[in-house]
From TrEMBL:
Protein name: Clavaminate synthase-like protein
InterPro entries (UniProt xref): DIOX_N, IPNS-like_FE2OG_OXY, IPNS-like_sf, Iron_ascorbate_oxido_reductase, Oxoglu/Fe-dep_dioxygenase_dom
Pfam families named in the record: 2OG-FeII_Oxy, DIOX_N
Record organism: Microthyrium microscopicum
Gene Ontology terms describing biological process: small molecule biosynthetic process
Amino acid sequence: MSTLPVISLAPLLTTLPSPSDLQNTLNALSSACTTHGFFYLTDHGIPPERLKQVLTLTRNFFKTASPADKERLARQDPDGARGFQRLGENVTLGKRDAHEAVDFYREWDESNSSLRPKDGTLGGKNLWPEQPADLKAEMNKYVEEVLKVGSVLVEAMGRALGLDGDEANELVRCTDKSFWVMRMIGYPPLEDCAEGVSCGEHTDYGCVTLLLADETPNALQVLTRSGEWIYANPIPGAYVVNIGDMIERWTNGLWKSTLHRVIHTGSNYRVSVPFFFEPNFNARIRPLKKCIEKTGGKEIGDEVVYGDHLIGKIKGNFY
Ligand SMILES: O=C(O)CCC(=O)C(=O)O
Ligand SMILES: [Fe+2]
């Protein structure tokens, strides 16, 4: 059975990397994104204790929150996206997902209301659990750290694609105020759930997903180009990274956002915390000239505004 490649981010985080290390990393990135759209990321600079803490806080929230606590955090109907979502409230391909979650998004700049969409889906503020008491502060610190990893990675992707001229900086420019999303997800064993899978097959919407998951094996599955589902089992200290729809759009399909799903048949309660490093809300994403050249010269798909794409997806996400 094939496994996903492992890429070390170290050469992109050191001030004076050896040119060959740097080039090897960019080549590995390009190859992983072309072949799988998925890879493991090591040496990303976030200490293992922080990753462990994020998972422990998440587990403790799901373990201790009462139904009333969860209700207080519940997202606002009908389309509100920030906050708690009950078991089975998320749907993928029209089927209920057997997980519960709390979703957080970048908050709007108070001083510039002109940037906010009229649509209420992403309005308001994030709804933070009161328990564990340190969850909000620690998760906010984590967001700052993981945002840096996302931006280093996306800049490296631009270099791996060989972007030049007026496009050289396009990926960085369009993600410098990343409209990030973070989900705390809890997966009960599937046998305890009435129907469905833990998370139905889907591609992610944006740029790059940095997935942190507990040690549960045989839950996350990735569809290979040859049509085989393989497990992306956790490697301690590493992220499972995958590229989203906006990278596919930018690269004119050279790099594809890959289908994945979660089928958690183990007997434990699994937790994961995917962090979605996304384009800016108002970023216009269109195929890059360099990528059109590399894919036969014909542009696939129209320009999309990331925020519109996101809202369109969110509206189909709830039961
Ligand atoms: O929990 C996981 O392993 C993956 C979750 C996922 O694919 C998502 O939230 O987009
Ligand atoms: Fe996903």
